[in-house]
Specification:
Layout: E1 2-7, E2 11-19, E3 25-32, H1 34-45, E4 49-56, H2 59-71, E5 74-81, E6 88-93, E7 99-104, H3 120-124, E8 126-131, H4 141-154, E9 158-161, H5 167-170, H6 173-184, E10 189-193, H7 194-201, H8 208-216, E11 222-226, E12 232-236, E13 240-243, H9 256-270, H10 276-291, H11 303-312
Helix pairs in contact: 1-9, 7-8, 9-10
């Protein structure tokens, strides 16, 4: 049985790589996409995962399938299409490691997936279904993802959700909020940024405790609010607290939130007896290590690397 199956986008992140021979900015092709990044974090820690999604029948799609396979993520649920190209994202990074995105996605293969393309047996054979909101931006991907979430809910699976709001994907904030809230109804485990929490709850961006409580009280199991280098807040029926995170020299923060969530998935499945505060400590370490290298999936650590990192920070 798989720990987690994700449905959504897997795409190419073109990350900055200095300058080319002509003196112009150079970009390196890296695998990315939040749902896939989450799976990779879990898999590298020792978990078992599978991906459901669509890529273009092109150079980039074939590259992504190979990366997922090489990482140990089951690609039985990945479908290739000739109707659209694989989605691309060009990443720019500032001096603090924070990034911005420019997407090539009109249309992109990720949101072209139809209900008939979804192998429901993969959801049957998993403990958790993890989703984001980027595929919700357009049909048929929107209807297909909600269909999968509804199926998983009725099958008694835990549903994990990270809105992962990207303004350039939506270009319509009210619509984005409406769709993010619709998916939120299915979720048991929720991870949000401060900005996403404010969008979903109407609370002040600084009042993360009230916002997290509002989401938890709507019938959730756990809520995690990630705040980049400032740390993270966690809330369940039995525990709550703030973890300040680990200070590192950030190179590229792409995928750090996904690394955090993938680690939470791993411990929910393999060590459910562990205190949530301890899960968050490990998740924060994985996020910090991810920030210390370029790219998302290539930067994710193994469990031994995490243990070594935590030992060095005692």
């Amino acid at each position: 049985m798989f720990d987690v199956v994700s449905i959504g986008e897997v795409l190419i992140d073109f990350s900055p790589n200095g300058k080319g021979k002509m003196g112009n900015p150079s970009f390196e092709m890296n695998p990315g996409g939040a749902p896939a990044n989450c799976l990779a974090a879990n898999t590298k820690l020792g978990g078992s995962t599978a991906f459901i999604g669509m890529v273009g029948d092109d150079l980039f799609g074939n590259f992504l399938i190979k990366v997922l396979d090489d990482t140990g993520i089951c690609t039985k649920g990945v479908v290739k299409t000739k109707k659209a190209a694989t989605t691309l994202a060009f990443v720019t990074i500032d001096d603090t490691g924070d990034r911005d995105f420019a997407f090539v996605r009109k249309p992109g293969a990720d949101f072209m997936i139809e209900k008939e393309d979804i192998d429901l047996s993969i959801i049957d054979d998993s403990k958790i279904l993890h989703c984001g909101s980027i595929t919700l931006s357009d049909d048929p991907g929107r209807s297909s993802q909600l269909y999968a979430m509804d199926y998983a809910k009725k099958a008694g699976k835990l549903i994990s959700y990270d809105p992962n709001y990207r303004e350039l994907i939506w270009n319509d904030e009210p619509k984005a909020i409406r769709m993010m809230k619709e998916a939120l109804q299915y979720a048991d485990i929720v991870k949000v940024s401060e900005e996403e929490l404010a969008m979903l709850t109407g609370c002040s961006i600084d009042d993360y405790e009230t916002g997290a409580r509002q989401i938890l009280d709507s019938g959730k199991t756990a809520v995690f609010v990630t705040m980049g280098g400032k740390g993270s807040y966690y809330l369940t029926q039995d525990e709550h607290g703030f973890f300040p995170g680990f200070r590192v020299d950030a190179v590229d923060t792409t995928g750090c939130g996904d690394a955090f969530m993938g680690t939470i998935h791993y411990f929910f499945c393999h060590h459910p007896e562990m205190k949530v505060s301890e899960m968050v400590r490990y998740a924060s370490a994985v996020g910090a290590l991810c920030a210390s290298a370029v790219g998302a999936i290539p930067a994710l650590p193994t469990m031994q690397q995490v243990e070594d990192f935590l030992a060095s920070r005692k």
